[in-house]
Design a protein that fits this description.
This protein is an alpha+beta fold. The chain is built from 1 helix and 4 strands.
Length: 108
């Protein structure tokens, strides 16, 4: 019995080392899997960011084109919010629009 116990005690450090190595390998695999997932998500975010940057550029160009058309028009152009506030007016508006003292507009 004494020989069996001493043999089991002698094997404990090796069993512990094996358990630690297995745990380390499991942790390394988990870290690798998470790193791979993060890398893929980062690539997806980069792709979406590029798409948004391109869309933003297109919207800026369209805005600038529309602003140029509005400003160059030889007609009164008013862009009005739903609540009646003027959002944008082209220079031609100055030819026929007069603001009264109480802030109202009237055509002259």
């Amino acid at each position: 019995m004494k020989g069996i116990v001493s043999t089991e005690l002698a094997e404990l450090p090796e069993q512990r080392a094996q358990s630690e190595q297995a745990a380390r390998q499991q942790a390394e695999k988990l870290i690798e899997d998470r790193a791979r997932e993060l890398h893929l998500k980062d690539q997806e975010l980069e792709r979406r960011n590029q798409e948004l940057t391109l869309a933003e550029g297109e919207l800026r160009r369209e805005r600038d084109l529309i602003a140029g058309v509005i400003d160059a028009a030889q007609a009164v152009v008013l862009v009005v919010h739903g609540d009646g506030r003027i959002f944008r007016a082209n220079p031609f508006v100055k030819c026929g629009l007069l603001f009264t003292a109480d802030g109202r507009m009237r055509w002259v």
